[in-house]
Amino acid sequence: MTPTGHPGVDWKKAPRLARWWAMDAGGKAHWFCEPDVAAFTDFWFSERAPAPDFGYVGDYKQSLTARPARAGMKAARGD
């Protein structure tokens, strides 16, 4: 594992809008999609979907892995 998450994540298996991959405390992996900001409100939410664990072993708190920037696209601010 690297400080940026799990290098074994295969992003080709991710849903199109998946932005992150992570394990939960129960040992299950999830894809987290781009946030959906509710118009005229001050909150947002992100869909999650089941994901393969890609052989991850380690502390789930260290598993958060951001999707690499796509070729030809600039990374979003804060990435």
Task: Give a topology summary.
Blueprint: E1 18-23, E2 29-33, E3 36-37, E4 44-45, E5 48-51, E6 65-66
Antiparallel strand pairs: 1-2, 1-6, 2-5, 3-4
Helix content: under 10%
Number of helices: 0
Number of strands: 6
State the shape: globular
What would you say this structure looks like, in words?
This protein has 79 residues and is mainly β. It has a domain at 19-58. It is 0% helix and 27% strand. It is built from no helices and six strands. A four-stranded antiparallel sheet has the order 5-2-1-6, with no helix packed on it. The protein has a two-stranded antiparallel sheet with strand order 3-4. It is globular, with a radius of gyration of 13 Å.
Outline:
By secondary structure, this protein is mainly β. The chain has strands at residues 18-23, 29-33, 36-37, 44-45, 48-51, 65-66.
List keywords for this structure.
disordered C terminus, mainly beta, 6 strands, two-stranded antiparallel sheet, 79 residues, globular, 4-stranded antiparallel β-sheet
